[in-house]
Write a structure and sequence with these properties.
Elements lengths: L4 H32 L13 H34 L2 H15 L7 H34 L22 E3 L4 H12 L4 E7 L10 E6 L2 E7 L8 H10 L9 H24 L3 H14 L8 H7 L5 H10 L2
Parallel strand pairs: 2-4
Antiparallel strand pairs: 1-2, 3-4
């Protein structure tokens, strides 16, 4: 039986709604956990105080509510675009604009570029209110936002605005370089980026190819260097970042979680288990991460396992 274009259209429409319903179901499970988990888990009583736990719970509740409404808007928007032929309309509009500039529709590359430009502009405009609300209401409410309204665009072209400076000589730099040498990590440069100008969230990453690697620390993370073991371990596995589709995202998440657990175990094998625990706990506190998660939501969404799962995994390797 040969599929018609109408059959394909309805198949795509049904498929994206099935995915949306599935994602909403998972989110509802996690949302329920945020609402009902009112006490610090027994395993974390000695490292996580009730006040921080409650702050994290309320922060994640706000993000969960925001995610539901923004996701619903996005789903309805996508459905309307497909149903009313928004994509072919924009394609034809791109061709007409080029015709007004003296180009015929034979210039498909130019028409494609114009189409992408218009689609990006439309997406940016429709997503702007959600981005503003997330940054200046939710993040502001919980003490993470450090932006002013006129500089929000820096989020989209942050590399042009971030200031990268070499990490000054000192104990931290010496320890990181020594650690890199001990595991034959080809560290060439060590930078600090002023991420605190926009947000108090902390992070660290490395980049580069082959024998020319650079590590970047957010200035909000200068106290902790144990996570560097983990970043270097992930590189030793030669993982490639893949822009996955919805169908592949679960498989990629499973692989990423496996790499994270392997990296934690590797840090422990170097004798940094205690330091890693302390760093993970501090990162979780600083970013108001919630230590509990629904197992199905976590397995589907979290490429980095939640704190409690990682703590338990570290204990199993001891």
């Amino acid at each position: 039986m040969e599929l018609t274009t109408i059959d394909i259209f309805y198949s795509v429409l049904v498929f994206i709604w099935i995915l949306y319903i599935w994602e909403t179901y998972l989110s509802s499970r996690q949302h329920h956990l945020y609402k009902t988990s009112l006490h610090v888990p027994a395993e974390l009583n000695d490292v996580l105080d009730p006040e921080t736990f409650e702050k994290a719970r309320l922060y994640q509740l706000d993000k969960s509510n925001f995610g539901f409404w923004s996701g619903l808007f996005s789903q309805i928007e996508t459905t309307l675009i497909l149903w009313y032929g928004g994509i072919p309309f924009l394609w034809n509009k791109s061709g007409k604009i080029l015709e007004n500039w003296g180009y015929s529709q034979e210039y498909e590359i130019l028409q494609s570029l114009m189409f992408l430009f218009l689609a990006t502009m439309f997406s940016t405009i429709t997503n702007l209110p959600w981005g503003l609300y997330n940054t200046f209401v939710i993040e502001e409410r919980h003490g993470f936002n450090k932006q002013v309204l006129v500089t929000i665009y820096a989020d989209y072209i942050a590399p042009l605005f971030d200031k990268f400076t070499p990490l000054p000589d000192g104990e931290l730099r010496t320890k990181i370089e020594k650690l890199a040498a001990s595991i034959e990590f080809p560290l060439k440069k060590l930078y600090v980026v002023e991420g605190s100008k926009r947000s108090s969230h902390s992070n660290a990453y490395f980049y580069g190819f082959f024998k020319n690697k650079r590590i970047v620390l957010f200035d909000t993370l200068l106290e902790d260097y144990a996570p560097m073991n983990k970043e270097k371990t992930e590189d030793s596995g030669s993982q490639d970042e893949v822009k996955d589709t919805q169908l592949l995202s679960f498989c990629m998440t499973v692989l990423s979680r496996r790499f994270e657990f392997q990296a934690d175990a590797f840090a422990k094998s170097l004798g940094y288990a205690a330091s890693l625990r302390a760093a993970l706990i501090k990162l979780n506190k600083d970013n108001l991460g919630f230590p509990l998660s629904d197992w199905l939501f976590s397995a589907w969404h979290y490429s980095h396992p939640p704190l409690l799962e990682r703590m338990k995994a570290l204990q199993k390797t001891e």
